[in-house]
Amino acid sequence: MDTVEKIVEDFASDIAMSSFSGTRLRDMIRAIRACKTAAEERAVVRRECAAIRTSISENEPHLRHRNMAKLMFIHMLGYPTHFAQMECLKLIAAAGFPEKRVGYLGLMLLLDERQEVLMLVTNSLKQDLNHPNQFIVGLALCALGNICSAEMARDLSPEVERLMRSREVNTKKKTALCSIRIVRKVPDLAENFMALAASLLKEKHHGVLISAIQLCTELCKASKDALEYLRKNCIEGLVRILRDVSNSSYAPEYDVSGIADPFLHIRALKLMRILGQGDADCSEYMNDILAQVATKTESNKNAGNAILYECVQTIMGIEATSGLRVLAINILGRFLSNRDNNIRYVALNMLMRAITVDALAVQRHRTTILECVKDADASIRKRALELVFLLVNDTNVKPLSKELIDYLNIADPDFKGDLTAKICSIVEKFSQDKLWYLDQMFKVLSLAGSHVKDDVCHALIVVLSNASELQGYSVRSLYKALQAYGKQGSLVRVAVWCIGEYGEMLVNNVGMLDGEEPVTATESDAVDAVEVALNRHSADVTTGAMCLVALLKLSSRFPSASERVRQIVGRNKENVVLELQQRSIEFSSIMQKHQSIRSSLLERMPVLDEASYLVKRATATQATISADKLALAVTPGGLKLSNGVAKPPSAPLVDLLDLSSDDAPASTIASTTTPNDFLQDLLGIGGVSSSTAGVPSTASTDILMDLLSIGSSPSQNGTPVVGHPGQESKPIPAAPEAIDLLGSLSSSTPVSEIKATSALPQAMDLLDGLSSSTSVSGLEKTAHPSITAFQSPTLKITFDFKRQPGNPRETTIHATFTNLTSSTFTDFIFQAAVPKFIQLRLDPASGNTVPANGNGSVTQGLNVTNNQQGQKPLAMRIRMSYKANGEERLEQGQVSNFPSGL
């Protein structure tokens, strides 16, 4: 019977529809889905839109709701439907529920709060909010909660407040959700809903409770007054809700995997976290119910894990007791044993935040966290490694680093880089015993040397040069590691450097430690190790250059192997790599022509200043973080970093360097040496080189000048550069004739004169006849009168001078910066530029803050060398940048009143 009635009904409906123009919604959808190309789809949509426009113009009310349904589908496909916005308002104004339902749906879908047409619907919404039919009221509330603007919120807020007191459960729920939108749009209305929201927490219906908790959460974010009010009036209600829902019996409508309404659990816990944060009284009131939820909730279901995770977040976010926090961290520890990767990931994230609250409780789960480092999932591995790094302290550094190094041997190649960096950082940060530090670094170099960065190797070499009692042990350990792991690039560099410096300790087993096994290695074996490294790593210019330097030093330490070393070095005279070719030629000349000075020339490198290296490394790290600003920091040795990295000048650099008409301006500023230039750092003995404008810094790798510690190469009339603190500007000759760097200096020539040489007019050999008795003249200091180099209404700069009699072209300037205003200058940076015939080096400043009213000053050293002394006077253009009262300022000027003779 039912089937017959349905057939009759469908037949009547078809007859009725046949008299209407256009198609039905289902026919239009079927036609669009049948389209095989986008052009066909657009044609169908254009045809339907044309039919809808015709129907609108002919004002056919009986087709309005069907046209609106089709327009909503067309809108969802992405086609414009603005021409039918007024049809929504007409449907909303209709009397029947079906028309209003389609009208409100179209209103929410086709319009938003930015449409001016929306203002016309305010009156209709107000009438529907007062309608006796609760379903029509629900439609109006739903639409208002989705698209209301600030103006509509103010106009309709009284009706929403009245409806919140309704007896209908659905109306209360929709009203609470609508109020959230109103509070977001107009936070000033939050005070109108505080009492109403608190009263809704006494309801029994879970839908109303969830909506009320959401409204309370939004009120806390919108107003501090609302937060304080809800702290006083809602805590008790929230505790009751959680207790009731936790202890409630089985209810099919709220049950999720055996858990009673987890959504209500989570909403209540989030609101508790907001109310308890920073309030000890509220937190104390919550402790019992949080402990109950944490202990009674089952963790074998996903819904239970969601509640537990939210409970842990609440415990860690409020002023909870230490016992409750331990309970929360233990829950996270259980999460780490879960098979679900998502649960383990969120647990690791939460533990990283919890370690700042209770590190000792997190330490108890160290073993489980270490297992996560070996997980198959890359995200979990990386997060666990970061957590392990935070867990390391002085007491557990040895077992943790051992576990990580053991895993390094089997770790995935993609993960080895991060793991190696963390291990090196841990060992360097927490090592108290140099022998342990060296052992761990040797293991890391052996297992993952290709992933060890150059600055880590440099730090290791600095430690080695300062640990004289461990140098023999180190060179033997590195020699054995080189035999077994010769393909690890960083290991090869460090090992080759040590063999070159301490090769005789390797051969003679000098400095044997207790329990150390002696190494049987001859002079030939040491040379073999370096030769193998040179041939294997010939494509790596840095490693090849270090191997050549090591061979040169071994030729002095092992006279019996000198001829063999000369042959190995000579084979590289025709190397396709220019750097290796140049070194080979120069080193061959040293071994052939300068036997008398070779031993003194190739002595061990002086002990590297560890404190200076720490300053330099910290400076480079800070410069990486901020290229235009260097923060003031303190190293473990108590040394303060300078303000020596200058900000990029806002004015063109040409103006700064425009000192005279015959001086070509520089196009770039000398760049700071980075730790990545391993060879330059290693051989520069603390010096910092710079590159000139547009020319690669080939002079910075001049091995001979580095070995002699002579300083910069003789300057030519090249391009001037801007001096930065800690840097020496070294112009490079354009293209001099071919010269022999190792010839025609008499044995009586002092080294200081070599340093002061201004030009090389003809071919010469810097070491011709230079005997081992070559002396370095002492430096006497000659004073000159002070000058006021610069003075403005805000800043005064004074220069004091000291001459070097052994090198009359070199002058040391002591600059004093005095603040003449009542505002303190911060981020103070001093820059200077000189003509091309002058070399300039700026030392680090004493600080970057200049006190107000002259109550103190900042000092900085400058070292200038006038290569045309006596022909042209000193000239300098200076620039000072700083902040005063948060405002950036820039001053600049030219110094031309230098004392005569400089």
From TrEMBL:
It is found in: Cytoplasmic vesicle, Clathrin-coated vesicle membrane; Golgi apparatus. The keyword Membrane applies. SUPFAM superfamilies: ARM repeat, Clathrin adaptor appendage domain. It is a peripheral membrane protein. PROSITE patterns: GAE. InterPro entries: Adaptor_Complx_Large_Subunit, AP1_complex_gsu, ARM-like, ARM-type_fold, Clathrin/coatomer_adapt-like_N, Clathrin_a/b/g-adaptin_app_Ig, Clathrin_app_Ig-like_sf, GAE_dom. It comes from the Eukaryota. It holds the Pfam family Adaptin_N. Keywords: Cytoplasmic vesicle, Golgi apparatus, Membrane, Protein transport, Transport. Residues 782-899 form the GAE domain. One of its GO terms (biological process) is intracellular protein transport. The keyword Protein transport applies. One of its GO terms (cellular component) is Golgi apparatus. Subunit of clathrin-associated adaptor protein complex 1 that plays a role in protein sorting at the trans-Golgi network and early endosomes (TGN/EE). The AP complexes mediate both the recruitment of clathrin to membranes and the recognition of sorting signals within the cytosolic tails of transmembrane cargo molecules. Belongs to the adaptor complexes large subunit family. This is AP-1 complex subunit gamma.
